[in-house]
Each structure stands twice: as C-alpha cells, then as structure tokens.
Write a structure and sequence with these properties.
With 259 residues, the protein is α/β, with parallel strands linked by helices. It is built from ten helices and 15 strands. An eight-stranded mixed sheet has the order 2-1-5-10-12-13-14-15, with helices on both faces. A three-stranded mixed sheet has the order 7-6-11, with no helix packed on it. A two-stranded antiparallel ribbon has the order 3-4.
Length: 259
C-alpha cells in the first residue's frame, strides 16, 4: 500500500474501524424515534446518537426502562442507571405486550453472532443445536424485537465467521429465505433494513437479500466481499461513508471513558 493509500485509512485519519462503525450506526438513528436497544454495540451507538444529533431519541430497554438517559454505557439491561435515568419503568411483560408487539417501537437495534444473506440472526449456537461447537448467550427479547419493530438495524463486525451463507440457527427472523416470507408469516415489522459493519453498510434489495450499498473510508468493495461468507452483491452505485467528525469522536470517547 502506498503512502497516498495509507493516508485514507482509519488509522491515518485518527480513528479505529470500530469507532467508524459505531458512529455510522449512531447517524442512522432519527431524532424523536423510539428505539428498542440491545446491549453492546447497539447501546453504544444509540447513546451516542442521543448525545449528538438525536437528543430526543427515546431509548427503550428490555428490562422496562422507557426513555433512559444514562450518563455512561450500561453494563446490562439490569444496570440500575437505566432505571435511575428513565422517564418511566414498567414491567417486562408490559414492554412486550403494550409497546413492542402492538408496533409502537420504530426501530429495533440488535447485534448478532452470525448473520446470513437474508438478515436472519443467530445468537443461540454455532454448529449443530444438539451438539454445538459454541453455545451463545441466547435469544432474550431479540426474536420479538426482530418480529415486531417497525424496522430493524443490525450492527456487528464483518468477517466470514459472522457473515455466513446460512445461519446455524435462526434466533431472530430477518427475511427468511426472501421473497416476502416475512409477510407470509404475518410479521408486521419490515425486518432488517440496515446492517452497519466496520467495513460498510448493507441494505436489503426487493427480495430481502443484503447488498453492499456503502463502504467506509479506506475500505474497498473487494475488502467487504473478502469478509463475507456468501457472494456479496453490490449496489449499482456504492456510496462512501463520511469520516467521523471531531465532535462525534469526542462524544464517543467521552461516553466510553465514563463507563
């Protein structure tokens, strides 16, 4: 790689691929929307969005905290700071029965261990279910989030290990095998509409298959394809993600430093 090429890489620009991914994910969240937040990368991005361009973003956590405004990143959905800073705290059944299932949540923000070409998520096992190579944390509320939110955003690091042709176990339904399978099953949410990785951005086409629509600075289409376990199709025009601003990096690093 030449010096000129090096000049466009994240390291040369003063940020990491993870920071680019988190900031790109935060930018996708709209102000005044209601977001059901998963712990980990989704929570970091959602809290960053609230601290930057979306101060009125309503964060909903599975534990029953509505409108949480944590001053640091929560360690889990049971972290007391979520309840302490919430507009209201309700029971877990109420979160699902009165908010999620009736379609009152705009965006479900999830992570994944495996993701396939149709946006199906696995957080249950790697390998055979009865005799897995790895047993993962499990479902939690993710299946309901994937089924019932207006749309679903997924954030995870891109690799062949994570981006697979077909997940070993469907924990959270994306677009199934595509071509309208969600509608056939009566799922009223749109499913995964956006996947943000440390390399770029993927969106579903009309069939539900994820295609590459943007790459981050310093990343090529070939890089993204090499990190994908299926033949990754590419949009006719691939956008370039704007690099993080100084304000975004400052806010993200302060958020992490407080945790």
């Amino acid at each position: 790689m030449t010096n000129l090429e090096n000049a466009g890489t994240p390291a040369a620009l003063g940020y990491t691929p993870d920071e680019m991914m988190t900031i790109a994910a935060a930018r996708a969240l709209r102000d005044d929307s209601r977001c059901f937040v998963g712990i980990g990368l989704p929570s970091t991005a959602a809290n960053l969005a609230r601290r930057t361009h979306a101060p009125d973003l309503v964060l909903v956590y599975e534990s029953g905290a509505l409108g949480s405004k944590p001053s640091r990143l929560p360690a889990s959905i049971g972290d007391g700071i979520l309840a302490e800073t919430a507009d209201a705290v309700i029971s877990v059944p109420e979160v699902f029965n009165y908010w999620l299932q009736p379609g009152r949540i705009d965006i479900g923000f999830l992570g994944a261990a495996q993701l396939d070409r149709f946006g199906n998520i696995n957080t249950t096992v790697v390998g055979d279910y009865a005799d897995p190579a790895v047993r993962l944390p499990g479902a939690g509320g993710a299946p309901e989030i994937a089924a019932s939110c207006g749309e679903v955003f997924v954030v995870l690091r891109q690799s062949r290990r994570a981006f697979v042709e077909q997940v070993d176990f469907i924990t959270s339904f994306g677009h199934g095998r595509g071509n309208g399978e969600r509608a056939e099953l009566g799922l009223h949410g749109a499913g995964p509409t956006l996947v943000i990785t440390d390399l770029g951005v993927l969106r579903p086409d009309d069939t539900g298959e994820l295609i590459l629509t943007a790459t981050h600075p310093g990343v090529t289409v070939d890089d993204a394809r090499a990190a994908t376990g299926w033949h990754l199709r590419v949009a006719d025009s691939v956008e370039r993600t704007p690099a993080p601003t100084a304000a975004e990096l400052t806010a993200l690093r302060a958020l992490r430093a407080a945790s």
